[in-house]
Amino acid sequence: MTNESLKTLYSEIGAEKIEELVNAFYPKVYADPNLIPIFTGDIGEIMMKQRLFLTQFTGGPPLYSNKYGHPRMRARHLPHEITPLRAESWLRCMKEAFEEIGLDQTLAGEAFYERLTQVAGIMINTGQTH
Q1: How far is residue 108's CA from residue 86's CA, in Å, rounded to a whole number?
Q2: pTM value?
Q3: Helix runs in 3-124, H state only
Q4: How many domains does the chain divide into?
Q5: How distant, in Å, are the alpha carbons of 49, 88, 96, 98 from that of 73?
Q6: What CATH number does residue 94 fall under?
Q7: 130 domain-assigned
Q8: Within a domain: 17
Q9: How would residue 109 be classed by pLDDT, with cut points 50, 70 and 90?
Q10: For all residues of the chain together, what is the average pLDDT?
């Protein structure tokens, strides 16, 4: 996907929908027994970072980079044991959040979810199954 396509995703999805997605997503994450062990810390800060990242990830303003530097998501997540099962759980929570806010019903939403699927695969850093 080109940078221009990503800008189109942000312009089609918008800040409000990203906010809705983050708000729908994190209750699912914190209710998932596979994910609870790796989501520690202040949920408000975690949600804020996710909003900034997803804005930038979809081609919006580089809010995450402006505040924290280059995203380097894989490197930032290395301290956490991200197993294939946890990546699948994360994606399931994201898919449920997409469905909850109706983002799964749009072409931009489908493209956005496909990109997140790729990210989930990249984040796996251990073959452990727990």
Answers
A1: 25
A2: 0.86
A3: 3-31, 43-57, 63-68, 73-77, 84-101, 107-123
A4: 1
A5: 11, 17, 22, 21
A6: 1.10.490.10
A7: no
A8: yes
A9: very high
A10: 88
